[in-house]
Amino acid sequence: xxxxxxxxxxxxxAATVQRSAVEPQPQSPAKNRTPEDPPIRDPxxxxxxxxxxxxxxxxxxxxxxxxxxxxxETGQLRWNSSDGWRFVLTRDGVEFVxxxxxxxxxxxxxxxxxxxxVDDDAAARSPQWTDTDIExxxxxxALSRHRESLVPDQIQPRAVCEPFRIGRHSVTTxxxxxxxxxxxxxxxxxxxxxxxxxxxxx
Length: 202
Ligand SMILES: [Zn+2]
What we know:
By secondary structure, the chain is α+β, with helices and mostly antiparallel strands.
């Protein structure tokens, strides 16, 4: 068996930690973890990005710290070949998708999160979601799914009377309107990339 001194530094560190631990924690990341290994389900081990913290306060995003914790503990695990691991919690017809990274390290990170309506009937029946909530989630999904494209046909059927944030704008839309309109600057937009590109002149 090789001595600790002959191992490359990260492995040597991991070996030291394991040997000094009084009792190995079942959820402690093992050495030689890879990005493909399923992430740990202990929310307290995850740091948060500024990007995520910003989103937690935005109207119309419906992601909260308790939701993130629950998703990490009990959500379905999905592997995405471009972004890595996601925890997905489904409640009343809506999926909460929580994206994590650095899961092979001892400092995993929650990167971002969003919601998607996956069952129209269940969402409509649920007291958890108002019609505006459901419309907001669907509109945000349509804009995000085709970030660079103009999507007037997907904006047109949506009705969102309470403004929600995309980029720096707070937008609403009425049924039949093919734009989202910023209540602060009056800007009209048909794509997420334009919303994120153009500053709000509020
Ligand atoms: Zn604006």
